[in-house]
Design brief:
There is one protein chain. With 257 residues, the protein is α/β, with parallel strands linked by helices. The chain has helices spanning 51-58, 81-91, 107-117, 123-133, 149-161, 179-196, 207-211, 230-246, 250-255, and strands spanning 7-19, 24-36, 40-44, 66-71, 74-75, 92-95, 167-171, 199-203, 215-220, 223-227. It binds adenosine-5'-diphosphate and magnesium ion.
Length: 257
């Protein structure tokens, strides 16, 4: 397990604007964010609030208009496309909302691709192992068109994990799935995440999925704010209840048993 105190992602005064014909559209207002290694973070917010834009910049797929993004101490905001793709290959996994599998490749070939790009020599073994972990050992030779939506998403997850990324980004990983498949995919994410100590940053509309993360932030019209997760507030009130219940009668508790 990685140390929980290491900052793996640090964002300072990040903004993103796009120039339209007649005006500048501000997609992200100046925002700051620090994420610790091994942390699980949910980014929530309504459609159009800037979640995908932010995730793409954090993962080095896009660049900010101003501000700094450090991923594993790499200054992504100063890197060109080739340098960013190197950082992505070495440190980042990404699960896209639309899966984005390559239709002409089998499930196994899709999963192996990032490992091959990162020049890992045991790509096939790792690919088969991961397909088996996501319950698709028997489907390795099948093409995306032969798989259901949930199965394709599981292939996408296996692909995202193959190079053992330090940070896994997932953009609404369960958004296109029915509840049961969605729950299964979420279980897989947290399970693989726990096993490998991977930092997990996910965008979701699903409050239940968000609540499974240690921390939640909210996007609202390009502004980011920290959200006190229900889990944290529940724990706090549980604690208060326990204190309230035990305080006046601690001596009676010590006499029990
Ligand atoms: N390249 C672009 N040009 C113009 N508008 C864009 C561009 N990319 C995103 N947007 C707009 O920015 C806003 C935020 O988009 P997005 O990050 O995809 O939001 P979310 O993922 O929260 O739904 C939306 O209104 C979207 O239409
Ligand atoms: Mg989006």
């Amino acid at each position: 397990m990685k140390s929980n105190s290491e900052i793996i992602l640090k964002v300072s005064e990040l903004t993103k604007s796009v120039q339209l014909e007649d005006k500048t559209l501000v997609l992200l207002q100046p925002l700051n964010l620090s994420v610790n290694a091994g942390e699980t973070l949910a980014i929530v917010g309504s459609s159009g609030s800037g979640k995908t834009t932010l995730l793409s910049i954090l993962a080095g797929l896009d660049i900010p208009t101003s501000g700094q993004v450090y991923l594993k101490n790499h200054a992504l905001h100063q890197f060109n496309e080739e340098e960013r793709s190197q950082v992505r290959a070495n440190h980042v996994g990404f699960i896209f909302q639309q899966f984005l599998l390559i239709n002409s490749l089998t499930a196994l070939e899709n999963v192996m691709l990032p490992a091959e790009l990162a020049n890992l020599d045991d790509a096939k073994e790792r690919g088969l192992e991961l397909l088996s972990q996501v319950g698709l050992a028997e489907r390795s030779d099948h093409y995306p068109s032969q798989l259901s939506g949930g199965e394709q998403q599981r292939v996408a997850i296996a692909r995202a994990f193959i190079s053992q990324p330090d940070v896994l980004f997932a953009d609404e990983p369960t958004g296109n799935l029915d509840t049961k498949t969605g729950n299964h995919i979420a279980d897989l994410l947290f399970e693989l995440n726990e096993k490998l100590g991977t930092t997990l940053i996910l965008v979701t509309h699903d409050p239940k999925l968000a609540a499974r993360c240690q921390r939640q932030v909210q996007m609202d019209s390009g502004f980011l704010s920290e959200k006190l997760s229900e889990k944290v507030s529940e724990k706090a009130s549980e604690k208060e209840n326990i204190i309230a219940a035990t305080e006046p009668s601690t001596s009676s508790i010590s006499q029990v048993g």
